[in-house]
Amino acid sequence: MARLSGAEILLECLQREGVEVIFGYPGGVVLPLYDALPRYNIRHILVRHEQGAAHMADGYARASGRMGVCLATSGPGATNLVTGIATAFMDSTPVLAITGNVARTLLGRDGFQEADITGITMPITKHNYLVMRASDLALTVREAVHICTTGRPGPVLIDIPKDVFQEEAEFEWPEEVRLRGYKPTYEGHAGMIRRAAQLINEAKRPIIIAGHGVIWGDASRELIELAEKAQIPVITTFLGIGAFPEDHPLSYGWLGMHGMYYANMAADNADVVIGVGMRFDDRAMGRFKDFNPTAKIIHIDIDPAEIGKNFATAVPIVGHVKNVLPRLTELVKEATHEEWIAWIDRVREEHPSLEIRETRRLIPQYVVRTLYEETNGDATIVTGVGQHQMWAGQHYFYKRPRQLISSGGLGTMGFELPGAIGAQIARPDAEVWAICGDGGFQMTMQELAVVVDEQLPIKIAIFNNGYLGMVRQWQQLFYNRNFMAVAMTQPDFLKIAEAYGIPGIRVETKAEVRDAIRTARQHRGPFLIDFMIDQEENVWPMVPAGAALKETIEAPPEELVR
Predict the structure, then answer these.
(1) How many whole angstroms separate alpha carbon 372 and alpha carbon 60?
(2) How far apart are CA 526 and CA 475, in angstroms?
(3) Annotated active-site positions, please?
(4) pTM of the predicted model, to two decimals?
(5) Which domains are delineated in the chain?
(6) What pLDDT digit, counting tens, does each position of 358-374 carry?
(7) CA atoms within 13 A on the CB side of 323
(8) Residue 499: how many CB atoms within 10 A of its CB?
């Protein structure tokens, strides 16, 4: 057995676990790790803020399906990761966060740049560790990676005091990981699967709601096979977009606060609701007590804590969707559900939701739809949070999993640019577009330096309306137009891009949109487009906060003619 320092043991373990990239920012207590890093075949991406490191690791994981890794020093370095870790936790992203801490003799003594990061992140990690001996590092890393990437994925944090990095120990690679208290259920209960099949076979108006778990479970093909055999319409959650191809005849978009009107009505009128890898959360389901009270709910999820949490479940199935769906498909009968599908089609015809009205103003829906057309629907789209996120979800049509990458559960502004960087590094040959809000972009725009450092060909589209758009929309609709603290004086985004060496174009009219997108796509490196969109454009349809899906509001007539 070789004798290595704690830093070398950590890096040796990461390399053996297949880690190729670390997104990090150095500091005093992690210098022993950085000193050892050049001896290992691991690429280090120098971020400009630790929040960016966590979001990049998250975007990397979502685009690739592999674990992302971020690294920070103690104190503020570690606490700056918190928003990104919480984002990954809410969206079940496998992110391994590594932090340094003060030396063991200073722990608990308020040493310089000390923070109890394991205590701080306990509610937002799947598990975390404070490693007090170099000899414990190898097993800790093995366990951490196993927990991070199995069952329901999620972030895990390892905190390491500086002198543990420096301490030497015998390196022994643990071939097996055995955690007595951690045994995810992968195979669904056979009796429950039979009950689910019986309910589906008896259903007149079944609907599938597919969530992010289908994407993480790599079960898109299995979902298609179930839907096609039983001819069940499929809708998705926002993060489930791409789990089922949106050009499929059985696809009816996504539901929820800004989902399609017909998707919301289909969910609210189904007699059997089959939730697959989703949480039945408030953003998707509206007011819980008034969601389709007569529907029988089948819930398939790998996390038993999610089943029955928000809704009474007729048939709970705990298991991995990739394993459960084929067994369910075997048992369901071939069906047509012609009347039910015809009913949803009529609703879609009467309430199309995604029509783009004719107007001379530069509206964001037109920008997204034009981007879809110019990229043939093949680009990877990364968004922040707000109006631009909803428009990107509505008006770009996604054919495959991992094509739309966005912060869902936590709703993190500023995710767009670092998330896109992580996605582009994970998939260097992909066409990656960061669709940004003008507010969210300013939260993490310093990461433009990483785009330049790493020579990434990311295309950046800023939807610039001079407002915190979603907040302004709520103030207009629900607070009597009391526009408080939402108007923003913006910098010149083209000059900011130029300062980093990134070319760009400002677009002020509809006539300029298509040529600007073509110019950006033809440029081999990064490119920024500043779209000066209509300031008062709102996102429709909308389920007001606290309302039921059946109370979905379409755009009011006065907005349609603006």
Answers:
(1) 23
(2) 36
(3) 50, 112-113, 162, 470
(4) 0.96
(5) 3-170 (3.40.50.970), 190-350 (3.40.50.1220), 364-539 (3.40.50.970)
(6) 888 999 999 999 999 99
(7) 13
(8) 11
